[in-house]
Amino acid sequence: MNRRQKTLIYASFSAFLLIAVMAAGSFLTEEATRVDFARKNLLPSLGHIYGTDWFGRDMFIRTVKGLSLSIVIGALSTIGSGLIALMMGTAAAIGGRRVDACVNWLIDVVMGVPMLIFLILVSFIVGKGPQGIIVGMILTHWTYLARVVRAEVLQLKSSQYVIAARSMGKSNAYIALRHILPHAYPQFLVGLILMFPHTILHEASLTFLGFGLSPHQPGIGVILSESLNYLSAGQWWTALMPGLSLLVIVRLFDLLGDSIQSLYNPYKSHE
Amino acid sequence: MKLEANHIYFKYGGSAEWLLEDISLDIRAGEVVGLIGTSGRGKSTLGKILAGQIGGYKGDVLLGGKPVPKGIYSPVQLIYQHPELAVNPRWKLGKTLAEAGEYDDGLRRELGVKTHFLDRYPNELSGGELQRICVMRALRPETRFLIADEISTMLDVITQSQIWHVVLDYAKQYGIGILAITHNEHLAGAICTRKVFMQ
């Protein structure tokens, strides 16, 4: 088995797991997390692999539900900021010096403000709950990817093979479609996937701080901040297991992004 | 037909001094002009200006008394020093070659471009093999002038002479004018009908 096949297997494995978590979360009903005081505060066991909480709810089911909500929120905000990044980056690269300076200034401004403070402000203005988090995330997370897009398009625009194509009389549309797009879109895609873990972690931390999802929504941040109150009572599993699961999900996205990157990198993809 | 640069002034953005100051040069059809000079004198820049790849200069570049046409296969073609940068790394070389249009199979054999090269990606071929392909896509019936910017500097002596042999033959046959940009005075002595120095 060569490296390409191994990478493909990694990529499809992590994609499958992420989709499975998302699907499982949306199929679970309220019934699954019913309160049952007969089995409260149980340690992790075969019946309840993540244990149960102080209301007797199964922590594994809560975690899956929380993660699935996180993934949905992450997906929405990633797509939103990806679109902004694409527009800003391309405009900066092909719009001339003034537009470039404007976009770069905007990127610096957004990057200059600490992200959590920006997020808290936006979620105050837009209103708490998922929409506040999503809007905040869209407005803050595009900067890095916009820089990637800008650099990529600028570099391709002045590459010798694009100039050579131009001197063969090829049109701008031909060059954009045949030369620039196939190079820029994998970078963009990888940037998007690597943005995902960021948004999930930010959603969790925002909720943990009390500015994100409201307590009755099944967010992973909600679970973590509640569990913290019980940590001192010795209930380590209610915080540890969901926390570990969050870590695993984030790492899976990282793995997916990295494998797609190495599959598409023109200098590595033929190895 | 004549390719001429008249009173060219050029500087890169941000630089205070002229890189090219009042430079005039002409190449007639069938002529091989060697452009010789040390690094940083603007030889390559002049080459790009002649090939219409840089704008923002003062003065004019004329092909047969008229501006060099754009939007069609340019009659002034430039071949670069680093062929690995001049081909799309995502494309098999057959596609790169086809981008320029149909090619002459006799020329392919003369240049030593084997058919199996065309089924490879650029990172699977050597610099010399890639340069043969880059030369091939610039040698076309539409080409009137060829700017060869250090095209053989990184090649071994045998490949160097092979490639130049084919290029000079082709140029002679079709009356193409060549501007050979080089550091190497011996090479210039061997191939050029006229030498121009940029000091």
From TrEMBL, chain A:
List membrane-spanning regions.
Answer: 7-28, 67-93, 105-126
Identify the stretch annotated as signal peptide in this record: none
Pfam family, any one: BPD_transp_1
Q: Which UniProt keywords apply?
A: Cell membrane, Membrane, Transmembrane, Transmembrane helix, Transport
Q: Where is the ABC transmembrane type-1 domain?
A: 67-257
The membrane-topology field of this record reads: Multi-pass membrane protein
Q: Which domain of life is it from?
A: Bacteria
| Compartments in which it is found | Cell membrane
Q: Which InterPro entries match?
A: BP-dependent_transpt_permease, MetI-like, MetI-like_sf
PROSITE patterns hit by this protein: ABC_TM1
Presence of the UniProt keyword Membrane in the record? yes
Q: Taking the first listed entry, what is the main subcellular location of this protein, grouped into a coarse class? A: membrane
**This protein's GO CC annotations:** plasma membrane
GO BP terms in the entry: transmembrane transport
Q: Which family does it belong to?
A: Belongs to the binding-protein-dependent transport system permease family.
What's the protein here called?
ABC transporter permease
Q: Tell me what organism the protein belongs to.
A: Paenibacillus arenilitoris
TrEMBL record, chain B:
The UniProt similarity line reads:
Belongs to the ABC transporter superfamily.
Its protein name is ATP-binding cassette domain-containing protein
Q: Which GO terms describe its molecular function?
A: ATP binding; ATP hydrolysis activity
Q: Does the keyword tRNA processing apply?
A: no
What's any GO biological process attached to this entry? transmembrane transport
User: Which keywords annotate this record?
Assistant: ATP-binding, Nucleotide-binding, Transport
Residue ranges occupied by any ABC transporter domain in the UniProt entry: 3-199
Which Pfam families does this UniProt record tie to the protein? ABC_tran
> Gene3D superfamilies annotated for this entry?
P-loop containing nucleotide triphosphate hydrolases (3.40.50.300)
